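We examine the record.
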Amino acid sequence: MLATYKVISASDLLVNKDMTEENRFGQGTDSLAWFWRMEGAGVDSSGTWMEEFYRIKWLKTKARYCRWEEELELVRHEIYWVVKWFQGQEMEW
């Protein structure tokens, strides 16, 4: 039996906090416990459960990437505006 199943450790039993803490730090290193990745562990045998899981994971990752792209663009503009402001202040000093 242990040839098929591994020993369940405390780290395997941690609750996935994506639902309770949607925007928490450190989501990029999350992974499913080994028993969810076993063949037949999903709700159905067609694999749609795992496909849905990975689709949701991909969408969340894409949304996070888009937020960082937007933040990067804003920071670049803020840097430009600050430099322009100081150049304007230079004439007054």
The helical segments are 48-92. The longest helix spans residues 48-92. Residues 51 and 57 are 10 Å apart (CA to CA).
